[in-house]
Structure formats: structure tokens, C-alpha cells
Amino acid sequence: MPTAVEFARGEYPRFLDELKALLRIPSVSTLPEHKGDVRRAAEVLVAELKRIGMENVRLIEGSGHPLVYADWLHAAGKPTCLCYGHYDVQPPDPLDEWLTPPFEPTERNGNLFARGAVDDKGQMYMQVKALESLFKAHTGKLPLNVRVILEGEEEVGGESIAKFVREHPEQLKADFALVSDTEMFAPELPTLCVGLRGMIYTEIEARGAKNDVHSGMYGGAAPNPFVALAQIIAQLKDKDGRILIPGFYDKVQAPSKDELKAWKSLPFDEEHYRLNEVGSVQLTGEPGYSVIERTWARPTLDVHGMPGGFIGAGAKTVIPAKAVAKVSMRLVPDMTPKEAFQQYKSYVESIKPAGVELDVRLIHSGDAIVIGTDNPYIKAATKALKQVWNKDTVFIRSGGSIPIVGDFERHLKIPTVMMGFGLPDDNLHAPNEKFHLANFYRGIESIITFFEELGK
Amino acid sequence: MPTAVEFARGEYPRFLDELKALLRIPSVSTLPEHKGDVRRAAEVLVAELKRIGMENVRLIEGSGHPLVYADWLHAAGKPTCLCYGHYDVQPPDPLDEWLTPPFEPTERNGNLFARGAVDDKGQMYMQVKALESLFKAHTGKLPLNVRVILEGEEEVGGESIAKFVREHPEQLKADFALVSDTEMFAPELPTLCVGLRGMIYTEIEARGAKNDVHSGMYGGAAPNPFVALAQIIAQLKDKDGRILIPGFYDKVQAPSKDELKAWKSLPFDEEHYRLNEVGSVQLTGEPGYSVIERTWARPTLDVHGMPGGFIGAGAKTVIPAKAVAKVSMRLVPDMTPKEAFQQYKSYVESIKPAGVELDVRLIHSGDAIVIGTDNPYIKAATKALKQVWNKDTVFIRSGGSIPIVGDFERHLKIPTVMMGFGLPDDNLHAPNEKFHLANFYRGIESIITFFEELGK
To answer: One GO molecular-function annotation for this sequence (chains A, B) (predicted)?
Structure first.
């Protein structure tokens, strides 16, 4: 009888075909026209979890996209893992920058290109396929207890799962969570993520004249909402990237000396990163901090879009009645989204330019997280990764936000193992998103080995 | 036999029906999908000019939308008028703010609502109907010589007509031009516009990372083009609205003492204007100048839209690879578009934020104009207006730009009579554009009377 890893290795072509089918579903959670597609992706997962042997498989309906739940709880005396992933994806725009269509998964140079390939359908599916392999090799049983909770709103703030975790913690009772939605620090370098930045995503709406007016007739008298927003944004950060919101840095905890030392030993070259990952003429951010510190351990502020006015080709000489800036901030321990938003809102209102009215709105938020490396689940994960990858694990943080990890900590009182296999050039949230296929396969093997280690 | 004015009065219902038909054609010159509609509007005008008795009526084809030409040159010894108007219109967006559809002309409270009602189809059509009435009353003749030149690119920079005027001045030889594309200072106040601001319409494109990147992973390292544009825009004007481009004000000519005195006597209340025309909580612009001075005699700078990034509903955490700001400046005598753009471009490049590359583009431009009030055409127009409106004419300037007036001055060496009948609340370039129907009718009578005065 083959081991679980051996079983998986024999089935990779089928696993890949199944993943491609899932990636063909354009489950873009932020766009109302894709609501049916998001549900379709959930239903595919329900069917698959049932097929492999999971129990109590069901959709949990709420006001938004459904959650997918499943469990298998017959490994008496063994720990319980809560497997988490998300089946929704970011919008694919700008479409014209994709080399192949975002929802037609395409293999090139050992990579699978598609929206959601790595974030997070591919990584979520590693867990499903690890469970299938374990059932097959362990005669219909798993080496530990497992609950699965998958969501379809991660890219739009994760309200439904947050509500469910908050209101029904007993239904998700577990000893730890496994989240596969992070990346490896470098190819071939097994990585556990033990820190995440939090975030607040906001909109500032500026309103001037009651109607759009002509910039010839009214230029010099009517307030211009874009100019007002520009003046506000220019006062949110100084030219070096330091955020100017009063009190914003007060709660920021510096990383420990050990962490900083470990980060310095990581294989990271800022010039290589600038040229190959970012591709800009220069990197930006606070002076005196390395790129790793700036993206993992410092709060940052970005503008994502400025809807309003005329954005077509050519010239329309309008002073728009209103304009919006989509502004988000990444937070680090021990900042809280609530306090950060209050500080931001008060400050924006205090620098309101003359002539406009402002509406400062919180769209969604998530807590910053740091996980201790001394818990037994992190230790078992480290051991499993060593076995599969034949290398010592590096502990990193991520600049991104996975708000659910904070919810697991707060409401379920459990730590999360963030074991992910994305690569730095996987183009998350961007055109030509991909997943390195070798990482899809070894990710499955890593999860199998991790679960077998915990079941010993 | 009825006089021309009497003839017109008998035909107003038909004139209005014809105007409505013209307004139903969505001749939006900036949108490629309306190219056919723009041509259709031109063809309707060709047919109508032929029908009323004009000669040599034809389309003049170029690389853009066609010009419409017509003439009648048999009034020996009388002056020649060059009638100008434009049959293209601004885009109608935002569509959801129109009370009735922009291309379904609708009468409400004595006004005709439609895109182009006043700018400029309605005003252009006053000229056509004045000519028809004169032909009818003068037994197939006109009291003076007339050339008509109509364009379909006024809202996109007017390249074709500028080229034609520059290259074929002999084909447009005239003693003065009549442009009906301006407004009355107040209802019932006959007005001649004797000054226009010039303009430069530009785009600043800022480019950071080579691709869109995730603001979690890269926030703190990747340059943000929107933040860069905001920093630039915030340095273009100070908080009081004074433009910070070095040298920008050097050539600005202050209005004469007489002009300033006349402007002060106009019926204008800044608080009424703020409340009823602009509707903002406060007016903006340079301290120390009245609204009239700021909008007629001072250069200004506005931002019209900032394409790029994510502008949909909800949250997409992207740092876009590029973003654009559409920025225009209004110019006054003796500024020149060429020098103003050079000063602007140099300054923008000199304040380029770290990490981004910039492309500063001129989209189009027009000269600022001041016309002397002592020429015979302005005097005849004043006399005609007194007769029709029974009030003395006020001489105003306009904050808007009609670049063709500068071209007529430069290449044809003729002055322009800007006799317009728009009202300040006509919503030019905005939703619910309208034309006051009484002004459409009395505009026709004013042009008839003006031409008869010159033919005496």
C-alpha cells in the first residue's frame, strides 16, 4: 500500500486538471455580476470534500458569499486542525496586460498562469488534495482531526467568516489553524510566516460644487475635489514616505533583535528586488529601514484609485462635483484598526481644504498578527518542511493582511500555522498571476507530512 | 411682406422642432464610437444651409470630423461676416445625474434640456435661422455678405478648423466674425463678450513599478503613482489657489481701471453665485481678487480626472504601475500657451517625486483674447441689442476658451463679435444642460437686427 505522499505523486496530473477546472470559474467576489460564479466555486468544493471522505460537508449561508464547512473528527487523542483557505479571487483588470486569459489556466515554464492560481485557489486546493491522499493511505481515516472552513469573501474583507467565527466559535473548535495563503521567501526555501500586517481600507469622498461645472466659467471660484484630495494625500505622507498622521507610530513595536538578525541573514538583495520584482527607477519608503523592515514591520499608506471626473481619452474641461480617493494603510503590532482609523479620520478632517466637504469611510479592516515560534504546531511544521524540502525553515513576516488569522486568535484562542508556497514573483492581485507547479506538488507533500507528524 | 423678425416669429415652432432633431444626434466628438453621429450632424446642417439659400455649401474633409462651409457673397459694398459655430458636444456623463435623457430634448419651465442645447447647437442654429429669415424677408438676398464655417471638434481642441484657417485664410476672407458660443451676464441683460481666457490642457502620467503590485507585499517599497501625482498637484497651487509655477504670472496683464469699474457695476452677488450657481460650502481662488476677476482675468489651474488603478466599488489593494492626472490651466492676456506649457512642464519635472517617471503631455491649447469695444462691428451689435432687448449692452469677458477667436485674429486679421445668449445656470459641460427658449428666439432676432444694421 502506497504512503500518502506516494499516492499523491501518482495523481498529480488529475490534481492539476481539477485545479484548472476550479480556476476557470471567475469567482471575483467584489463584482456583483460574478455572484453566481463565486457560488459555483463553493459548490465544486463541497462536492469534492464529500467525495474524498470529509463529513458534515455543507454550505453555510449568510448575507454574502457562502462559507464551505467540512470535518472529520475521529482521531481520538490527536490534535484538531482547522484548515482555512479562500475560493474567491481579485478582479482580473487590467485585462490587456495578461499574456493569456485570466480564467483560462495556462502552463508556461513550469508555472500555471490564472487569476487565483496562487491566491488562493491553488494553495487552498493543496490542503484538499493532502486530505484526499491521507484518507487513501490511512484506509479511510486521517492521522489527526480536521475541520475545513473555506470562504468566498477574502478579497472583499471577509465579513461572513468573521461573523461566523465571532458568533459560533464552538463550531470551529480546534487546536490550531493551517492557512495556506502566504509565500516562500525564495525558491527552494521552506518558509513559515509568523507575522502579518493589519490594514484599514478607506475612502475619502470630497464634494465641491453641487453639479459638475465648466472649468472655464468656474475655474478660480469653484472648489476642485481632485485638487483637495491631492492636497490631503500630500499631507498624509512626507516625501520620504513617513506617515504624518499624529500618533500613528505610537503603538508600533519594533521587531526583536533576534528577528532583525534573522531577517538580515535572508537571501535578499534590494537592487535585485528593485530591478526584478518592482521594476521602478528607485524604491521608496522610510529612510533608515531596510526593504524587509519597511514591508513587514512598518505601517505604510497607499492610494489605489481616484474615481470621479473624466477619465476617457482626450479633454473634458469639467470641475467634478465630487471625487473619491481609495486609501489604505497597513498596520503592524500593536496598532489596532480602530485607533488607526480614528487617528486617520480626525487628521484628514483637520486638514480639509477650503470649499469641500469630506466623507471619510472605513471599507474594511484587519488586525496585525505575530505568532510565537515556540508552539508545537510551528515546531511540527518546521520538522515536516525539513523532511520534504531538505532545508531549514525560515521564519518571515508578510506585508499583506490575512484578517482571519486575527479572528482565529481572538475568538478561537488558537495559533495559526501559515505555511504557504507562493513565490515572490507570482504576481498576486496583478496581471499574469501564477503558481509554480513544483510548489503546488511539494506543498501537498508538506501538508501530508505535517499532518502525519502531528498524528504520531 | 413681413420683416425678417416678423417672419422668424411666425416660424418659431418649426425652428424649435428642427433644433430638437439636431440635438437628438449624439455628436460627442471626443468618443470614437460617436464618429458617425458627428458626421450625421454635419450633414443635417449642409442640407439645411442649402435649403435656406446659401451657396457653395459643402463638407470640408480633413483627418478629423468635417467642417461645414457655406457662403453668400452678393451684397456688393457691404461688409462680410464669418459666422462660426460648432455642432459637436461634450460627453454626457455622468448619465445618472440627468433628469431627462441628454439626447432626448425636453422642455421644462421655458427651457430646452439636452446636451448641446446651449453649447453650441442651439446658439449655432440661431445664426442659421437668422439667415433663413433674412433671405425670406429680403427676397432671396442677404443685407450683407456671409460666410459660414461650422466645426465638429470644438470640444476636442478644434484641430481641423485651426489648420484650415491657418492654411486657407483666403477662403474665409471676411471683415469680422460672429461667434454665438458665449453667455449673457444675467437674464435680460444684453451682453457682448470681449475677452476670453486661453488654455492648455495637459496630462501628467506617472509610472512606478513595471506591473501593478500588491499593496501588502510591496507597500513601503514600491512607488505609488497616485501619491506621486498628489504630491505634484499639491505643489501646483497653494492652499489659497495661487499657482506656484515659477514665472506663470509674469505676463499677466491686469484689466484697465475702466474695465474693473464696469465689472464692479455688474449685477453680481458673490453669495448668491456661491449658493445658486456653484453650491459649494465656500468659494475658492486667489485672495484679493473678486470672483469676476478670478474667473475672467486671472489664470487658474484645475484637475479633471485621474485615470488608473482601481475605481470599482469595494476594495482592491493594488499599487498601480501607472496613473494619470488630467490637468488644465486657463490663461489670460498676455500669456501664451507655448510659454505656459514650457513653464509648467519644467516645473512638474523639477518636483518629480522619487521613484516615479513622468510624461507631461500637452493635449490642446488656445490663446487668450481681448477685443477692443471701439470697432464698428461691436458698435453695430450694441445698437442691435439695444433695439431687441431695450437695454444697454454690458461688455464682459468669459473665463472659458474659444481658441478659434484667436485663430481668426492671427490668420484672418479680423475681430470677432461674441454675441451669445446662454445663461449662467445653463449647466454647460454638465448634466442637465439647457437653453432658455426665450433667448433662442431673441437671439435669432438680435442676429437679424445686427445684420440689417450692418447692411444699411
So the answer is: metal ion binding
Q: Residue A272: what residue type?
A: H
Q: Which domain holds residue A328?
A: 198-252+299-366
Of A30, A215, A431, the CB nearest to B212: A431
Cβ contact A311–B307 (<8 Å): yes
Phi and psi angles of residue A417, each rounded to the nearest 5 degrees, phi first: -95, 115
A220:B400 CB<8 A: no
Mean pLDDT for A246-268 is 93
CA distance to A91, A270, A291, A335, A445, per residue, from A9 (Å): 33, 37, 38, 44, 9
What CATH number does the domain containing B373 carry? 3.40.630.10
Is it the case that residue B120 has pLDDT exceeding 90?
yes
Name every chain A residue with its beta carbon within 8 A of the beta carbon of B252: none
CB contact under 8 A, B399 and A216: yes
Distance, first Cα to last Cα, chain B: 19
Residues B191 and B204 placed together within one structural domain of the fold? no
Nearest by CB to A399, which of B199, B210, B216? B216
Q: For residue A243, is pLDDT > 90? A: yes
Which residues from B are below 8 Å from A355, CB to CB? 280-284
Residue B191 lies in a domain: yes
A269: in domain = no
Sign of the alpha-carbon torsion through B427, B428, B433, B437: positive
Q: Do residues A193 and A182 touch, judged by C-beta distance below 8 A?
A: yes
Name the burial class of residue A194, with classes exposed (0-12), middle (13-18) and buried (19+) by CB atoms within 10 angstroms of its CB: buried
Q: Are residues B70 and B182 in the same domain?
A: yes
**Among all residues of chain B, which has the CA nearest to that of A307?**
B311
Cα distance between residue B180 and residue B440, in whole Å? 11
Grid cell digits, residue B49: 444651409
Helix (H/G/I), strand (E/B), else coil: B366: strand
> Which 3 state secondary structure label does DSSP give A456?
coil
Lookup: cell for A266: 535572508
Please tell me the total count of domains within chain A: 2
Q: Is the pLDDT of residue A1 over 90?
A: no
Output the nine-digit C-alpha cell for B323: 496613473
| B230 interaction partners in chain A (CB closer than 8 Å) | 229-234, 303
Tell me if ipTM is over 0.85.
no
| Model pLDDT, residue A388 | 97
Q: What is the residue type of B51?
A: R
Residue B284 covered by a domain: no
Residue (of B204, B272, B312) closest to B425 by Cα position:
B272
Kind of pairing between the strands at B213-214 and B369-370? unpaired
What one-character DSSP code corresponds to residue A428? T
- Quick: pLDDT tens for A65-120: 999 999 999 999 999 999 999 999 999 988 999 999 999 999 999 999 999 999 99
Classify residue A421 by its DSSP letter. Answer: -
Q: What is the DSSP letter of B170?
A: G
d(CA B32, CA B30): 6
Instruction: Report the chain B residue with the minimal C-alpha distance to residue A294.
Output: B220
CA distance B74 to chain A (A): 39
Between CA B128 and CA B72 the distance in angstroms is 13
